[in-house]
């Protein structure tokens, strides 16, 4: 974990993002996935909203995933062990990148077949406190034919833009600066399961 934390903080410092494969082991991934599928089957997921506070609204033409927010005061043992890992990331990013990260918030996300999330930034006027986005994919198997990629956009020195497509492979962790990297989830051809969270500069 030490080397990994060094790697994560160095990449965030230099490139504003990092992708870590096999961030969690297979047993842990399967257990988290099973827990999430049970919650889906209990009808606990809701259409995700966009915006914040009074401006919060369900806009399925912008995003059509379903989410279940985790309750920091009522985490399952599995969720708590994932939060403990994120806490390590929070600390190292504060030490090495001086980001002033104070808390984490996160939700499970389920993208049913055909769902997507149009291009956006995770930090915007309504949610200024999200500094670092942390996504963990839980899918059993994924190939390029399943689509549903995370497409991240990068502006280049000549003013043009390039993008990188990231498959939501189980156990893969994606970390990036919430205010710097526009991204989208392209329509998925298979149910797509993840935990998405944000390290914030408020408590
Ligand atoms: C989000 C998001 C990307 C993904 O929930 O804000 O952009 O790959 N998710 O799930
Ligand atoms: Mn996002």
Note the main sheet.
Answer: 7 strands, antiparallel
Structure classification = alpha+beta
CATH topology: Jelly Rolls
DSSP E strands, number: 11
Total helical elements: 3
Bound molecules: N-oxalylglycine, manganese (II) ion
Count of spatially separate domains: 1
CATH superfamily: q2cbj1_9rhob like domain
Indicate the radius of gyration in whole angstroms: 16 Å
Unreliable residue stretches: none
- The CA-CA distance between the termini, in Å, is 25 Å
CATH architect. name: Sandwich
Topology pattern, helix = H, strand = E: HEHEEHEEEEEEEE
Backbone shape: globular
**What is the arithmetic mean of pLDDT?**
96
Strand content: 25-35%
Strand order of the largest sheet: 1-9-6-11-4-3-2
GO biological process, one term: cellular response to hypoxia
Pfam family, one: 2OG-FeII_Oxy_3
GO molecular function, one term: ferrous iron binding
Protein name: 2OG-Fe(II) oxygenase
Explain this structure to me?
With 203 residues, the protein is α+β, with helices and mostly antiparallel strands. It has one domain: q2cbj1_9rhob like domain (Jelly Rolls, Sandwich). The chain is 25% helix and 30% strand. A 7-stranded antiparallel sheet has the order 1-9-6-11-4-3-2, covered by helices on one side. The chain has a 4-stranded antiparallel sheet with strand order 5-10-7-8, with no helix packed on it. Helix 1 packs across helix 3. The chain is globular, with a radius of gyration of 16 Å. The mean pLDDT is 96. Manganese (II) ion binds next to loops.
């Amino acid at each position: 974990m030490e080397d990994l934390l060094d790697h994560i903080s160095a990449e965030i410092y230099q490139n504003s993002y990092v992708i870590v494969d096999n961030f969690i082991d297979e047993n842990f991934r399967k257990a988290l996935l099973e827990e999430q599928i049970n919650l889906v089957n209990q009808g606990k997921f809701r259409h995700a909203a966009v915006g914040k506070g009074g401006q919060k609204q369900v806009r399925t033409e912008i995003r059509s995933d379903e989410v279940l927010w985790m309750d920091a005061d009522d985490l399952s043992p599995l969720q708590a062990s994932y939060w403990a890992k994120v806490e390590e990331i929070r600390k190292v990013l504060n030490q090495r990148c001086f980001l002033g990260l104070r808390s984490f918030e996160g939700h499970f996300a389920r993208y049913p077949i055909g769902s997507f999330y149009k291009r956006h930034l995770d930090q915007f006027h309504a949610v200024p406190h999200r500094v670092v986005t942390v996504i963990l994919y839980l899918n059993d198997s994924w190939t390029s034919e399943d689509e549903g990629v995370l497409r991240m956009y990068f502006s280049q020195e000549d003013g043009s833009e390039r993008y990188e497509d990231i498959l939501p492979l189980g156990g893969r962790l994606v970390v990036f600066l919430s205010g710097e990297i526009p991204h989208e989830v392209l329509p998925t051809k298979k149910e797509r399961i993840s935990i998405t969270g944000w390290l914030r500069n408020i408590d």
